[in-house]
Specification:
Largest sheet: 9 strands, antiparallel
Number of helices: 3
Family: Belongs to the DNA glycosylase MPG family.
Shape: globular
CATH topology: 3-methyladenine DNA Glycosylase, Chain A
EC number: 3.2.2.-
Distance between the termini: 27 Å
CATH superfamily: Methylpurine-DNA glycosylase (MPG)
Number of strands: 9
CATH architecture: Roll
GO molecular function: alkylbase DNA N-glycosylase activity; DNA binding
Strand content: 25-35%
Keywords: DNA damage, DNA repair, Hydrolase, Membrane, Transmembrane, Transmembrane helix
Protein name: Putative 3-methyladenine DNA glycosylase
Length: 195
């Protein structure tokens, strides 16, 4: 693992000036860090999807704010977490200015610290948005919290993907033609789905 004293924390002002598509590209390669008690878990974000504005029919903000989607309408740099299918939490990072519903779904990450290498398939335990939330302990308690004031934070260690793949989003019924899924192809074996 790299020396985390050289890491830079990502803060809300940076994300509030990016739309969801730019934010989805930007977040690939960044590091999620979850502090749970005395244990720290870190993982590199390797796959994201953008949900952007009032023109995206797959976005929860497409028809305006609801009690569930309200965090999408806040300033960028907050978490939007929702519960789906009765058993999965989904982690999104809000981007853009207040009033513009933009968010980035974190689809997959690669384990770095805190995960047991002896677990069968430990490098694939974060290869889906529901699995990622389950293994990091992400739930609705973190919904609408600022990314720099939460036990879950986002960092940069200077890593930049050299081969960023782009494709259509998955698991949706509307806006399926939009090529707003991004992935670091160095980690192609650990993505939620091939790109």
């Amino acid at each position: 693992m790299s020396d985390d004293t050289q890491w830079t924390q990502i803060t809300p002002p940076l994300l509030s000036c990016l739309d969801a598509v730019a934010g989805a590209c930007f977040l690939v390669g960044k590091i999620l860090v979850m502090e749970r008690g005395s244990t720290r878990y870190s993982c590199r974000i390797i796959e994201t999807e953008a949900y952007h504005g009032f023109d995206d029919p797959a976005s929860h903000g497409y028809r305006g704010p609801t009690p569930r989607s309200q965090p999408m309408f806040e300033w960028g740099g907050r978490y939007y977490i929702y519960f789906i299918y009765g058993n999965h939490h989904m982690l999104n990072v809000v981007t853009d200015a207040a009033g513009m519903p933009s968010a980035v779904l974190i689809r997959a990450a690669f384990p770095m610290e805190g995960f047991s290498p002896s677990e069968p398939g430990h490098t694939r335990i974060l290869n889906g948005p529901g699995k990622l939330c389950r293994h990091l302990g992400i739930d609705l308690c973190l919904n609408n919290t600022a990314i720099h004031q939460s036990p879950l934070s986002i960092w940069s260690d200077g890593y930049q993907p050299q081969n960023l793949g782009q494709g259509t989003r998955i698991g949706i019924k509307k806006g399926t033609h939009l090529p707003w899924r991004f992935a670091d192809l160095r980690f192609r074996a650990f993505l939620s789905r091939p790109i």
